[in-house]
Amino acid sequence: MLDDELLMALAVRAVNAITMRPSIYHARNHAAEGESIAFTARFALRYGGKSQNEESARQPEIRNAFNSPFWPFVLASTSVGQEGIDFHWWSHAVVHWNVPSNPVDFEQREGRVNRFAGHAVRKNIAAAHASDVMTSEDPNPWKAAFDAASKTHEDLGEFSPFWIYPGDAKIERQLVSFPLSRDLAKIDRMKEALTLYRFTLGQPRQEDMMEILKRRGVDGAALPLLDLSPPRSAEVASIRTIEETQL
């Protein structure tokens, strides 16, 4: 229910994101011994250093600002940001500055934005079911939207609508490849390894697997199908046996 208390909480969150205080860093001045160069940064965080306690206090502030509709709109991070952090509230694109050494790290990076009820999913649902929200009596607009989405596209299975939903918005993967870089050869190998990794875990995006089969000259439609449906219970199996016997 959107009451005064919730409106005030939203207002405070917006104010904290917009009015984030800057931090002053000091770099060593090699031209003058014993002196330093001061510069101001609003969002940049120093990795390690003497002011680690202060930096730790600013980290959640910057993370909350990024997880809002306000700036910053781009977050650059080292490998420390590829695990345990949720960025899916307002982001659905990941730029890989390098190619990780294994598919697990690759999946962890994209997992920051590819999560339950992520930004891309919500954008697609909002575009498809805005009219359902306006006519619904549910005070929670997102619950009304997801309820309407759950009644459509039943062919997508249990992953819909909270993990996948058709629409223009998608999880974007951007790989930065430099000329003559060894990453050019690693990209294709990593894509195949990532697809096999996801396929082993039974995750969606099986179109990646079909693309690999196509590149290897295998017709996906001619492959035998795997029946992954749960086994029938003993009672149902016995009833079916009796019916077949009577026939």
From TrEMBL:
The organism's place on the tree of life at top rank: Bacteria
A Pfam entry, by short name: Helicase_C
SUPFAM superfamilies for this protein: P-loop containing nucleoside triphosphate hydrolases (SSF52540)
Limits of the Helicase C-terminal domain: 47-116
InterPro entries: Helicase_C-like, P-loop_NTPase
Protein's name according to its UniProt entry: Helicase C-terminal domain-containing protein
Source organism per UniProt: Rhodoglobus aureus
